[in-house]
Write a sequence for this structure.
């Protein structure tokens, strides 16, 4: 089996913990990957006084696949999102976030209708309200009284990601795409997005096309997620809706994600860096691991992906060793009152089950 080189960005906060556990699981499964480690975020600041060193970017650009842990984005100040910058630098313009119910019945005891969720959110990743075009527009003395963020929607970027969504649907045998927007209020930017969507939809007569206003879409996902297949939307709306969809399938601890472009692909979990838990080895690594299986399928390593998923699902169904968030779910559902284990012990249990399946 050919060994492929993959960039590993451990991230910061709990990123290095969940990525290291995933790497350990991959090694146990004999996955033919050679890791090229690149540091961004807090580790890079400590070493180079720069969260995104130029040399790091040069190294990343040598390889088409990047496996990434979460990176902290300072709130209300500091440097701009490194996640957004990386997507822009590599032009991974489509954030693809599947929300599929896991084959673990106890996750959906409280809300049984979420057992059969299987949808994909495709989100434009290079512009919109995350373009970084913002400024203070009114300052009196030392007091800021107004600020402004520009919502950038271009035909080129919109066409690119909407075409991607339709091609993704066709390739994966999905039958319907819903464009999510706020064109009733944002008539120019939302209106252009919606216009482009229906222009492109005409070229895919085999796929049903419809649209929903974003606030209504949020309600629809909570009430009847099974009615939706592929959602395509802009940057901020997709960010919010994908977290909502993660809640339908068991939470951010089990939600994988990918960022796909024409040349590069970045794989990272939906959740953030959770800095307050750094060093505690308690955060659920399942999302990072399932993100890894998305990456393996992208690389054509389907059998390895399936083996790892079976080991994860076996561990979850056996309910012997689980992290704190999953123990809390069991307790709320009235199924069991287990003592949580560290994510290290949880990973060892997955590896034990993996060895039994090999």
């Amino acid at each position: 089996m050919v060994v492929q080189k993959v960039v590993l960005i451990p991230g910061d906060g709990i990123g290095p913990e969940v990525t290291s556990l995933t790497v350990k699981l991959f090694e146990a499964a004999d996955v033919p990957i050679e890791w090229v480690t690149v540091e961004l975020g807090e580790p890079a600041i400590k070493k180079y006084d720069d969260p995104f060193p130029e040399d790091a970017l040069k190294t990343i650009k040598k390889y088409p696949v990047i496996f990434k842990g979460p990176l902290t984005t300072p709130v209300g100040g500091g440097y701009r999102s490194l996640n957004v910058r990386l997507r822009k630098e590599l032009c991974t313009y489509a954030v693809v976030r599947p929300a599929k119910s896991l084959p673990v019945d106890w996750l959906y005891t409280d809300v049984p209708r979420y057992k059969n969720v299987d949808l994909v959110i495709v989100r434009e990743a290079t512009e919109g309200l995350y373009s970084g075009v913002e400024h203070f527009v009114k300052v009196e003395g030392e007091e800021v009284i107004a600020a402004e963020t520009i919502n950038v929607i271009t035909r080129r970027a919109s066409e690119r990601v909407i075409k991607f969504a339709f091609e993704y649907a066709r390739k994966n045998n999905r039958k319907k795409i819903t464009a999510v927007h706020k064109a009733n209020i944002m008539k120019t930017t939302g209106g252009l997005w919606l216009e482009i969507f229906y222009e492109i939809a005409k070229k895919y007569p085999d796929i049903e096309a419809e649209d929903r206003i974003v606030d209504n879409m949020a309600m629809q996902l909570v009430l009847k997620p099974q009615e939706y297949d592929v959602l395509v939307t802009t940057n901020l709306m997709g960010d919010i809706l994908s977290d909502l969809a993660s809640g339908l399938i068991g939470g951010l601890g089990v939600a994988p994600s990918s960022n796909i472009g024409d040349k590069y692909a970045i794989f990272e979990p939906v959740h953030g860096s959770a800095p307050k838990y750094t060093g505690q080895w308690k955060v659920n690594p399942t999302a990072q691991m399932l993100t890894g299986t998305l990456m393996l399928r992208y690389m054509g390593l389907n059998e390895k992906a399936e083996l790892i998923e079976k080991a994860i699902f076996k561990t979850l169904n056996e309910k012997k060793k689980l992290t704190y968030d999953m123990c809390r779910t069991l307790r709320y559902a009235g199924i069991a009152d287990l003592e949580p284990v560290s994510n290290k012990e949880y990973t060892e249990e997955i590896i034990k089950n993996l060895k039994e399946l090999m």
Q: What stands out?
A: The chain has a mean pLDDT of 94. The domain at 1-93+261-358 is CATH 3.40.718.10 (Isopropylmalate Dehydrogenase). The chain is about 40% helix and 20% strand. The first strand starts at residue 4 and ends at 9.
